[in-house]
Amino acid sequence: MEKFSVSPEGIKYALPDERAEREEIKVLDEVTLKQKQLGRKIVAVQGLGFVGAVMAEVVADSTKNGKPIYFVHGVQRPSMRSYWKVPVINRGESPIEATDPEVAEIFPRIVKEKKTLRATWSSHAFSLADIIVVDIQLDATKPVFGDAKTGYCDTGGFEKAIADLGRNIKPEALVLVETTVPPGTCRHIVKPILEREFKARGIDLSKNPPRIAHSYERVMPGRNYVSSIRNFWRTYSGIDETSTGMAEEFLNNVLDTKDYPLYKLNNTNASELAKTFENSFRATNIALVHEWALLAEEVGINLFEVVKSIRVRPTHRNLMNPGFGVGGYCLTKDPVLANWASLNIFKRTKGLEMAVHSVDINDLMPLHSLELAKSALGGTVSGKKVHLLGASYLNDVGDTRHSPSEIFWKAAAKEGAILSVHDPLVKVWPEVPEAKLETDLFGSLKDKDAVIFAVGHQEYLELDPQKVVEAAGKSLAIIDTQNLLNDEKIMKYLDLGCEVKGVGKGHIKNLKSVPK
């Protein structure tokens, strides 16, 4: 029975069979030979997700003296979930929905014009590469919601992917791990696996030890998606001096290291820890602000104004705002990865209690917005038509992974809410398959009892209260979780008979008594 991989648009692509694999190997050899004759080094990017696809773009688009430096094999395993990316990329199209126009602009240039990128599913590409950039998924599992200390990292899939490299790569090739991994991964997981596979191939490790480096990205999906990879600071390290030097040369070739210099750490444990520590700091910052948001709501204070006043102090400019919750691929898991590494890789008896507790606070934040909605609706959402504005985890981004909207939706559904959702950037919400994404914003508001401003998309920022109420056909509950409503708009909603609540906006109760 033929199996298919289905794209977000619903297009089916048949998964390759053995015959297709044989033909693909021939094509890979021919393409690689031609590229080497042009004097280009070969890079394989393992994993074409939100980071890997754009990293492949950046590498394939890099030049020296006006000429391309590298040819890139973008490698995506032939799974039903993701294989569709291969034919899409090879048509010169982006596999990613992004508000950054550069994402869509680069793919046709490097695939059709420069011909410096080709996607494949075949592991044979690894045997042809001088550098392999590892961008595969490595998640933390949190089995108990709101209890992140029970979280763990299942490295099984990651280990299989590294073993696949070990069975194929040239001994002198560099393996550059870009995936966010638990501290200690390169030294305690990647290195032993590659050594095992090298030995099985009869490779002399004393002459050809695996070349391994780590350099983490600080990708920021949104309007500066590509720039956040190419034009941003990088920390890096290598397993030895040779690996470090190879990584440095590669990064200098593909990134703007003149304006954004590289920062070298002395071993891969340090650079891996840097990534998880960096995101744990941000997660803890957000969790701290959430505690104060609850206080501000109870005592009648606008915490956003308080935060603004504190930020005038230069040392406190990175104080976060309160909000709907924390989502995305990094802040929801990186503290858990580091905690797991502390206990399981480094065999410590104590974990990272503050960092892990911040994850608990952040995971539970959407439930507070549900409580605000219940309060605004007379104490319950059961039987009420509740409309979410935003399914993604971040404003002006179409990525729904670990979105706070998912947590809100599932909790509200359990309490009997009749839910609907609109998001201008999300075509499919795989984490909530029962949700139908509305495309007509004002049409989607009809007959709703409550509107949750869940994501700060530009389209929602510009909404006029009068038009919202007219589209709904009645006064309704308005929950502002993202500070999208200034006091003037809040007053308009109140004048229109709406009940308004806001995360960190305890001052709304005072606005109700302002003389008309």
From TrEMBL:
Keyword Phosphoprotein in record: no
Protein name: Nucleotide sugar dehydrogenase
GO biological process: polysaccharide biosynthetic process
InterPro entries on file: 6-PGluconate_DH-like_C_sf (IPR008927), NAD(P)-bd_dom_sf (IPR036291), UDP-Glc/GDP-Man (IPR017476), UDP-Glc/GDP-Man_DH_C (IPR014027), UDP-Glc/GDP-Man_DH_C_sf (IPR036220), UDP-Glc/GDP-Man_DH_dimer (IPR014026), UDP-Glc/GDP-Man_DH_N (IPR001732), UDP_ManNAc/GlcNAc_DH (IPR028359)
Family note: Belongs to the UDP-glucose/GDP-mannose dehydrogenase family.
SUPFAM superfamilies, alphabetized: 6-phosphogluconate dehydrogenase C-terminal domain-like (SSF48179), NAD(P)-binding Rossmann-fold domains (SSF51735), UDP-glucose/GDP-mannose dehydrogenase C-terminal domain (SSF52413)
Keywords, comma-separated and alphabetical: NAD, Oxidoreductase
Domain (UDP-glucose/GDP-mannose dehydrogenase C-terminal): residue spans on this chain: 387-487
Entry-linked PANTHER family: UDP-N-ACETYL-D-MANNOSAMINE DEHYDROGENASE
GO MF: NAD binding; oxidoreductase activity, acting on the CH-CH group of donors, NAD or NADP as acceptor; oxidoreductase activity, acting on the CH-OH group of donors, NAD or NADP as acceptor
